[in-house]
Design brief:
CATH architecture of the largest domain: 2-Layer Sandwich
GO molecular function: ATP binding; metal ion binding; threonine-tRNA ligase activity
EC number: 6.1.1.3
Organism: Streptomyces tateyamensis
Keywords: Aminoacyl-tRNA synthetase, ATP-binding, Cytoplasm, Ligase, Metal-binding, Nucleotide-binding, Protein biosynthesis, Zinc
Catalytic activity: tRNA(Thr) + L-threonine + ATP = L-threonyl-tRNA(Thr) + AMP + diphosphate + H(+)
Largest sheet: 8 strands, mixed
CATH class of the largest domain: Alpha Beta
Helix content: 25-40%
Number of domains: 2
Structural class: alpha+beta
Bound molecules: zinc ion
Length: 406
């Protein structure tokens, strides 16, 4: 596997600047295009699975994290608070959970609303030391694909199972794999919230979800979140380092800290459970993995440029521009490879990572057709331009892995 940092620079996907700071990459247009497609995919999958999207601020008062337990258990990974006058201290958030817990309790909730699935692709921050930072995998500003499911204890195993199914489907669509499943449990020490009975129950619920899908997993002590055990989906990067991509966690702790409740069928107040889950983890790590796994040859729906239009000579420029405009109208990312930039062969080589190249010679231009070259080397007979665009549009819309249906 290639190193995503090297390839990311070569393909102009992202970069960093010492003046902005280590661990704070910026996304160039090609990288931003991949990220948009990925974020759109996640939001659509979540909507279909009954999640509701929210936005919450990336800052919160120090008291918020004292209440959640992050201040006591996670402070060394957090940025120091910003003082505003004598009264107020604001913290860059180390996770989205506390905001979502507060949003859940913003009004009274009925059992009929459960499971309530609250999702957000939101920023969070980790104060890593500059020596360990690099590329998209060790960063200080993280865009997290996060969600919290507020549900009853009886609903936890089914919700965890649903989350695992979303994760597996996403890995297939993205071409990510192989992955390993890990049940991460508490270790010794003050890092973890103390309550052995709750830890045991939470771990049991996660095991049920894994067993229900017949997923093999290993157990790892000392890898849990401070508030509860979790299922981690592990990947390996080009340097052979293992990292967590996706995760499903069961949490009895934060609902108690935030005094969350819902009104049950009996009219009494009950405590919900929080299931934290992430399908692709951080957008940064997910894109790093995609770069390495595909070596820059992304599935068509993720590719920064999906269609390169190559007129053989300047005479075909008007036809090429018309095709380009039509492709963009249909929301395809298309680019013109101008004949003044080099020979046809040179332009074909330059666009070798682009999934589709539409070559327009004199005959194609006159017929309203295009001869398609696929990235895998296939060359198709000239087809009407509208037919070409319809096929490409369908491949991209369905997030298909194959380049051509036949
Ligand atoms: Zn969370």
């Amino acid at each position: 596997m290639p190193d995503h940092r090297k390839l990311g620079r070569e393909l102009e996907l992202f970069d960093t600047d010492p003046l902005i700071g280590a661990g704070l990459p910026y996304w160039l247009p090609a990288g931003a295009a991949i990220r948009h497609s990925l974020e759109e995919y996640i939001r659509r999958e979540e909507r279909r699975a009954g999640y509701q999207h929210v936005y919450s601020p990336v800052l919160g008062k120090r008291e918020l994290y004292e209440l959640s337990g992050h201040w006591a258990h996670y402070r060394e990974d957090m940025f120091p608070p910003m003082e505003l006058g004598a009264e107020e201290e604001l913290v860059l958030r180390p996770s989205l959970c506390p905001h979502h817990a507060v949003m859940f309790r913003s009004r009274s909730r009925s059992y009929r609303e459960l499971p309530l699935r609250m999702a957000e692709l939101g920023g969070m921050y980790r104060s890593e030391r500059s020596g360990v930072l690099g590329g998209l995998t060790r960063v200080r500003a993280i865009q997290l694909n996060d969600a919290h499911i507020f549900c009853t204890v009886e609903q936890v195993a089914e919700e965890a199972r649903g989350a695992l199914e979303l994760i597996r489907r996403a890995h297939r669509a993205l071409g990510i794999g192989p992955v390993r499943y890990r049940l991460s449990l508490a270790g010794d020490g003050a890092k973890y919230v103390a309550d052995p009975e709750l830890w045991r129950r939470s771990a049991e619920l996660l095991e049920q979800a894994l067993d229900g899908l017949g997923i093999e997993y290993e157990r790892a002590k000392g890898e849990a979140a401070f508030y509860g055990p979790k299922i981690d989906v592990q990947i390996t990067d080009s340097a052979g380092r293992e990292a967590t991509l996706s995760t499903v966690q069961v949490d009895f702790h934060q609902p108690a800290r935030f005094d969350l409740h819902y009104v049950g069928p009996d009219g009494a107040k009950h405590r919900p459970v929080m299931v934290h889950r992430s399908i692709i983890g951080s957008v940064e790590r997910a894109v790093a993995q995609l770069i390495e796994q595909h070596g820059g040859a992304f599935p068509a729906w993720l590719a920064p440029v999906q269609l390169a239009v190559l007129p053989v000579s300047e005479e075909q420029l008007p036809a090429a521009r018309a095709l380009l405009a039509r492709a963009r109208e249909l929301d395809l990312r298309a680019e013109l490879a101008d004949p003044r930039e080099g020979s046809l062969g040179a332009r074909i080589r330059e666009h070798r990572l682009v999934p589709y190249q539409a070559v327009l010679g004199a005959k194609e231009a006159a017929d309203g057709a295009a001869a398609l070259r696929l990235r895998d080397g296939r060359r198709l007979e000239p087809l009407p331009v509208e037919r070409v665009l319809a096929e490409l549009g369908a491949v991209v819309a369905d997030q298909r892995a194959e380049l051509w249906p036949h």
